[in-house]
Amino acid sequence: MRSRLLQVTRSRLAFLGAGLGLHLQSDPALAKSTSGAGGSSVQRPQFRFGVIADIQFCDCDDASNFAGTEVRHYRGTLSQADAAAEHWNRSGVDFVVQLGDLIDGQNAGGYGAGLDFAEPQSESALARVVQALSKCSAPMYHAIGNHELYNFDWRGLVKRLQQPQAGAANGRDWHVASAERLRQSPEECTAHKFYFSWRPAEGWTFVMLNAYAVSIEQDKSSDGFRQACQLLSEHNPKCFEMIMNGVTQGDFFTGLERDEDMRFVPFNGGLGEGQLQWLREELRAAKSRGDRIVVMSHVPMYAEAATLRTLVYDSEAALEILHRDGGGNVVAVLAGHLHRGGYAIDEGGIHHVTLQSPLNFENCFGYIDAYADRLELVGCGEQGIPSRTMRFATAGSHLGQEPATRTYDTARAYVRYTFRATLPVTTMYRYQSILGRLRRTPPRENEVPTPAPMAPLGGRLPPPPPAHTRHRRQRSSEAARSSAARTDLALLMPPPPPK
Ligand SMILES: [Zn+2]
């Protein structure tokens, strides 16, 4: 509590300094925020919190994911965790939200580089990430990701990420589970301890969900395991057969045709009815208090902000609850899991942010300032999480939403960072020259390429205009260039990768 008070005080001092025209630190991201992204005068946020997702550290060489669609810089994420902690300290965050997948599944020794380890690295890898993040003195809230469950069981996660515990004197104020439910039945440790809520400030409720309450990555005697088996066998029988035969790596999407079945793969998970009922009650209680509500989950729940392949199993039910029981008060859903990230606002005005991963982007962390009428996401650096203003809907109308203008920038950074280390120089040169040519040359009449569906790949998209309209449409040269470049990027961008 004392460290939190110190944090809040530091945060307030930083803003006081900014108000007086002083810069208490040289952090450009902070300077940007305090100069007032929402206007010329400095407005103080009610609180500020750090964000990061999918650190996925492993002490192994860079490698591609299973599908071969992205290169992951496993060692580099440790220094990013370190830099993130420093950044949050400098920025005076009041707390941090870590959205899951702290270390990679390979650490457990079962696949990939892990097969070459003399013994599992789970313990030492997590210890290094924990040490890096511990440099941040603010309280930290952790989501459960699939890679947590590849390395540890539920009890092991409480032991390592719920702090302080009796006898612990490391000064951490960390939360991965409901302290109340842990206290009520300390002898049992199941998935249902790992969702909880807290109120970071008057007028705000934060809800942390466990997207793997229904998952095959847990004790086979649990309800969540049985439910996951049932869902996989119903919606993705070939994948279920693979798992039953002990095949843990492969193309889990073979034979899937229906969009609504794509999410039923082992690296996603579900909330389950017990957690959904808890969510209903939490939202109703928060709404009756008039709180703004922020929901967090490792796995996204809105396809337009992610892909159909990276959604929680019961995303429709969850979204319905957010709208029906928390409608007007739920302002944002924060997630990770899909490393290239995404953003969309849904029909009910809820902002869905999928954070990019440090495995694929440099300087991939940031913070969010909470105001009465908006959240200001401030990314760090050009490549990482795009900064974004998310205004809240009021009385059923959306207050001037800012378009997702940085989707293209993010895609470009993704391609650059992913390909840089691996492509031969000649290939890189060809890629750059093609891109450069497309940027310079507007498409000819009747050859206007259709803009690629960058952010919501696989999601619901408005139908393209009829061909004759498209051909006759007059475009500014800038729009045409942008469209051409995006089409080129869409060809280079891989399909959504399995996590
Ligand atoms: Zn994940």
Automatic annotation (TrEMBL):
Residues 477-486 have a biased composition (Low complexity). It holds the Pfam family Metallophos. Residues 440-499 are annotated as: Disordered. Residues 47-340 form the Calcineurin-like phosphoesterase domain. GO terms for molecular function: 2',3'-cyclic-nucleotide 2'-phosphodiesterase activity; ADP-ribose diphosphatase activity; CDP-glycerol diphosphatase activity; manganese ion binding. SUPFAM superfamilies: Metallo-dependent phosphatases. This is Manganese-dependent ADP-ribose cdp-alcohol diphosphatase. It comes from Chrysochromulina tobinii. The lineage of its organism: Eukaryota, Haptista, Haptophyta, Prymnesiophyceae, Prymnesiales.
